[in-house]
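Our consortium's second objective concerns turning raw sequence data into structural hypotheses that experimental partners can test. To show how far this objective has progressed, the report includes one record in full. It was chosen at random from the queue rather than selected for favorable results. The single chain below, 111 residues long, was entered without modification.
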Amino acid sequence: VSPINKALWSPSFTLVIGGYSFMMLALFYWIIDVRKCSKWTFFFQVIGMNSITIYMAQKITPSGRILNIIFGWLINRFPESLQDAVLYSLYIICWWLFLLLLYRKRIFLKI
């Protein structure tokens, strides 16, 4: 059965992406769980513990527009070719700091 949520998902695309995903899962399992090298994963733990919160918050807030208003002066200092990258980097940093606050207060949205 081919997924119907995207028109470009062919069965071969699904199998290739599934294979890449499985290899990445195996690689990270080996690095994090087997080799016990997990200090670098804190960034992703903060996001993963409140992934539903961040998904829903992005849908109901105009955060891109707000960031552009707050950090517009900083973004305009960069060349036009880098302005989107700076905006999206600030977007990720601000949301991550929000999630870090929730993480430290042990507030987790669960279903």
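The partners drew two points from this record. The radius of gyration is 18 Å. The chain has five helices and no strands. Both points have been shared with the crystallography group to help prioritize constructs.
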